[in-house]
Amino acid sequence: MGWLDRWLGRKPFSSSQELLSDAQLVPTNWASSQPHLALLKRFLSARDAKDGFPDYWATAFGMSPQCVIDGMVAHGALEPLPLLEKIEFCHTVAELRKILSSRGLKVSGKKAELVQRLLEADPKDMEKLCAHRMILRCTPAASQGVSRWEAEQATALETATDDVIAALSNRNCKAAIRSADAYRNNKFEPPVHPAQEAMTIHPAPRSIEERANDLATVFTMRPKILKGLQPEQWEGLYLNYAVWQLLGRVAPEKCMPGFAGFGVMDSATVTRMLSFYVKHQRDLARWRELGIKRATIFGVGGCEACLALYNKTFSLDKLPELPYKDCTCDLGCRCLVRADLGI
Question: Residue 123 belongs to what domain range?
Answer without folding.
Answer: 83-136
